[in-house]
Amino acid sequence: MSEQESSSDERMSSEEEEEEQKKEEGFSYMNLPDVEWGQLPPHIEKQRSRVHLKPDAPTNTETLQYSGAYASMGVDNSFRLDNFRDNFRIKVIALDKDKMEFDLIGIDAAVANAFRRILISEVPTMAIEKVFIANNTSVIQDEVLAHRLGLIPIKVDPRLFEYLSANDTPNEKNTIVLKLHARCLPGQSRRTVYSQELKWLPNGSEFAKESENPNSKPSTYTSFSCSQDSLPEFASNPISAMEDIIIAKLGPGQEIELEAHAVKGMGKTHAKWSPVGTAWYRMFPEVVLLENVEGEDAEELVRKCPIDGVFDIEDTGNGKKRAIVADSRVCTLCRECIRGDEMWERRVALYRVKDHFIFTIESTGALPPEVLFTEAVKILEAKCERVITELS
Amino acid sequence: MKRPTCSLETPAAMEHGSVRDPSSATFSFVDEDHTLANSVRFALNQDPRVSLCGYSIPHPSDSRVNIRVQTTGDPAREVLKDACQNLMLMCQHVRSTLDKAVDDYRSNPTDMDTK
């Protein structure tokens, strides 16, 4: 330790000499200051942590995951859980019952993307899978009607249900039955059928199955052992479909009578089971002014930017104006500010922060967005656990 | 060069490797895709014991991924298990941080920064 210190003292004095030399000889890489061992030089650190957007194309888009990537500089790039815990942060920006925006900071794109993919295709929900149409005299065909019904979100927690496999009989644990009976009487004016007309049947199907043996006990398309509304989880909050969705329009004398059976499924089977309208993220945009932009140029910069609020003009006193970056978050990184004259490229630098994700989740209504994200994380955990148990 | 000489088949994961050299192996997972494979590759790459790793999806219609792991000496199977373990711990931390962040937001929607 002491040896190192003494050597660094020597370096200090030699640095001064080098400084002198530099002035005489002009620039040389030999004269660049030493970087401390175990620390990345600023330009490498920038390459590691930022995507640089140039006017023609972005550079440094990759992330170096390899543990020994910076070994020659004494920097350990391997995974340390305590490091991760220290650096990882979540900042909720906006949250309401069906939309959430939050910042995920200090996580790799691989994991953030896994969460996004799971949200879209692997978090289960309930959706109408079978439609039994008793009567449909409307202009909308049976198969189109069935497809439309499938896409209606059902407001129920899917965790309370089981999957219906091919050989299972539909029962109260895996099926929700909804009934729709809408008609437009002759002489009435045309009417619209909305999704709130789908009525939950907690006792299961009401349609009798046709049987070859006329003496056998009449059976329906489901076999519920008890009524769903007697179950504690549904007693106080009845199951319903998302309101105000148009199902069909009926002319005078037309009628629709059907029963829809909703089952549990995942978005990778069909998008109707996806619990999100969509879930997406973008890397945090960083806008840096590399030199002072003043006067007319400052106003031009503000004019060049199509987004309000990224740049602003500040008065520096005695009537002078200077451009500042007011809010880089709203920047779409359209690169309009660095287009045109090459001098702008020297003045403004645009980056994306590689480990800062602005994550947005739009729920379809079955579960609130924060619960969806928690579920997605749990699913990734379950996948890991499956690998561990299968390799043990 | 050693050819794969054994395959230990379990319902959803398979290891193709050599009996004599457990330090490199290819693991084949059914019903998985980029979601797990890319995250696991990330976790493996950050492990100093790993000298090479990568994954491939042999055919887009098959729901199967192959994950190749070569280590500097430790059994590939153990290293893969550790990577999954790390990923799981990461997920648990993400989950608890989110819960805290949401609670903070609900109690004070203006200032929210949760560590």
UniProtKB/TrEMBL annotation, chain A:
Its main location: nucleus. GO terms for cellular component: RNA polymerase I complex; RNA polymerase III complex. Residues 1-28 are annotated as: Disordered. The keyword Nucleus applies. It is found in: Nucleus. Residues 8-26 have a biased composition (Basic and acidic residues). GO terms for molecular function: DNA binding; DNA-directed RNA polymerase activity; protein dimerization activity. SUPFAM superfamilies: Insert subdomain of RNA polymerase alpha subunit (SSF56553), RBP11-like subunits of RNA polymerase (SSF55257). This is DNA-directed RNA polymerases I and III subunit RPAC1. The keyword Translocase does not apply. It comes from Dovyalis caffra.
Automatic annotation (TrEMBL), chain B:
GO terms for molecular function: DNA binding; DNA-directed RNA polymerase activity; protein dimerization activity. Coiled coil: none annotated. Keywords: DNA-directed RNA polymerase, Nucleus, Transcription. It comes from the Eukaryota. Residues 1-22 are annotated as: Disordered. GO terms for cellular component: RNA polymerase I complex; RNA polymerase III complex. InterPro entries: RBP11-like, RBP11-like_dimer, RNA_pol_Rpb11_13-16kDa_CS, RNAP_AC19, Rpo11-like. It is found in: Nucleus. One of its GO terms (biological process) is transcription by RNA polymerase III. Pfam families: RNA_pol_L_2 (PF13656). The keyword RNA-binding does not apply. The keyword Nucleus applies. Residues 25-96 form the DNA-directed RNA polymerase RBP11-like dimerisation domain. Belongs to the archaeal Rpo11/eukaryotic RPB11/RPC19 RNA polymerase subunit family. This is DNA-directed RNA polymerases I and III subunit RPAC2. It comes from Dovyalis caffra.
